[in-house]
């Protein structure tokens, strides 16, 4: 199996996996969504809340604020030896919030959450949490811990994780008359006319919609859309909790660990 990175941005990555099966590709996608641990608020101790939001709604909103995650310094609660309900410094961290509206209404933003660990903080300071009217106040402590997306969506490290087959387009130049109907209908500008011939310019951008085939006046179509069943293009976007490269690496480690456990179980059953 081979991996080729096509492009990276701050919170996204695009890469190709070659010589793989659809089952493996889907397992990798699912592992990125549900098996890679991230930090999220799990318990909230509300000291004072005179806003219009119930304590439960306020806690729910805090839980959905993505937090930057340090997987090297923290462990999952079930793997920690403290066995404490609220955890210890190895499996949880504390964030505090104290906000008040005095003369006029104001919004409370995620940037007002103060963490005892500078490495665990909201990925953005501009996430609205609540709106306070004059005289209203919120004081609370929030306890964040590692968890997996399989347990709750707030622990999902990705906002998007998808893949598609590698497109394979072919043009029958003997039958193509250069009418450009397929060029006009392609939503990704994959096709073009060069020197009076139809050419495939950006094959990798093809979405496999087959509009080009359907709009070709030739019957059967002079252009054929297919795909490589052993090559996949992945698009992964992080919530900001973890770098995208780390998400892919941790997902691959999870699959390797589960495969090893399955093999050991099968050998023990013999």
Question: How would you explain this protein's 3D organization?
Answer:
The model has no long low-confidence stretch (mean pLDDT 94). Strands 1-2-12-9 form a four-stranded antiparallel beta sheet. The chain has a four-stranded antiparallel beta sheet with strand order 3-8-4-6, covered by helices on one side. It has a two-stranded antiparallel ribbon with strand order 5-7. The chain starts with a strand and ends with a helix. The chain is flat. The longest helix has 26 residues. A hairpin with a 2-residue loop joins strand 10 and strand 11. It is an alpha+beta fold. It has five helices and twelve strands.
Q: Main sheet?
A: 4 strands, antiparallel
Radius of gyration from the CA trace? 25 Å
Structural class: alpha+beta
Shape: flat
Strand proportion: 35-45%
Short account of what is shown:
By secondary structure, the chain is of the alpha+beta class.
SSE order and pairing:
Blueprint: E1 2-9, E2 12-18, H1 22-34, E3 38-49, H2 55-63, E4 92-100, E5 106-109, E6 114-115, E7 128-132, E8 137-147, E9 158-171, H3 181-185, E10 191-194, E11 197-200, H4 211-215, E12 223-238, H5 244-269
Antiparallel strand pairs: 1-2, 2-12, 3-8, 4-6, 4-8, 5-7, 9-12, 10-11
Helix pairs in contact: 1-5
Salient structural properties:
alpha+beta, 270 residues, 4-stranded antiparallel β-sheet
